[in-house]
Amino acid sequence: MHTCSQCSSQVPDGYRFCWNCGAPIASEEAAEPAAPTLAEPKPAIEAQLVLVKGEGFPGISYRLKAQNHRLGRLHGTILFPDDRYLSMLHANLYYENDKLFLADEGSDNGVFIKIKDSVPIEHNDLFLTGEQLIRFEQVGEYDTYTGVAAEPEDDAKFYGCPPEKELHFRLVHLFRNQQPGAVFYSSTNSVRLGREHCDLSFPFDRHISGRHARVHEENGSYFLQDLGSRNGTFLRIKDPLELKDGDHFFAGQQLFRVEIQASA
Fold first, then answer.
1. What CATH number should be reported for the domain whose range is 115-143+164-236?
2. 139 CB neighbour count, 10 Å cutoff
3. Entry pTM
4. What span, in angstroms and rounded, lies between the C-alpha atoms of 78 and 27?
């Protein structure tokens, strides 16, 4: 048995990482002791990561006692080797100025934070409602036609729908590998998403509430709002984000809850 240097848990022989906090287990075969280093100042908060849903055992927790806690499929201290939607190194949770931050480490599928009420969104932002991945696109930032128009042989005009008098934004439904599917153009400043009786409905997604989320425009700015859904609405982060107690985020197929308290 080994004793974890981070959380003091007893770890069986042969384990490379601690089962409790994910810290690497120091090898006993080192040729010579490592040079002494100055101890990092202890942050004023203590945090742990709780697995809510995913490839591991729901409820398992990871105590975040180091400065950095990298998460991924192959690299890091918090590993999920069977989750093919995780990049080899996917995300990092780290302390800075007595606060806990979450950063995307250039992953392919991104990191999604559960929003609270209404948050600003910008062109090309991605969000999750249930199992549906949606891309928000602002009017004027996308091409209205991406195909190649054929040249008419005479002066005849092609058939087409009459243009809307005013378009506010569009929502693009993305499939696996972010291949675009249905595109919804909004001619009003508000679109509701849900399982049924909404502007954009997904009746076969059991993870979506009846009225789940809303995208709306206010004075030229755009917002994503959760409508009290059961499973929440998640927005992909672009920059390091400060985490608060009770925050939830997705990385790959793993859903985590963050628990933070003052350090003893």
1. 2.60.200
2. 15
3. 0.78
4. 18
Query: CB-based contacts of 108: which residues, under 8 Å, 6+ apart?
Result: 87
CB atoms within 10 A of CB 168: 18
| Both tokens assigned to 182 | 């249905």
pLDDT single digits (tens) 36-72:
555 566 678 999 999 999 876 778 999 999 999 999 9
CB atoms within 10 A of CB 64: 27
Amino acid at site 258? V
Q: Which residues of the chain have pLDDT under 50?
A: 28-31, 145-147
2-26+40-110+237-262 CATH:
2.60.200.20
What's the CA gap between 105 and 113, in Å, rounded?
15
Please report the pLDDT score of residue 163 as a whole number: 65
Helix (H) or strand (E) segment spanning residue 93: strand 91-96
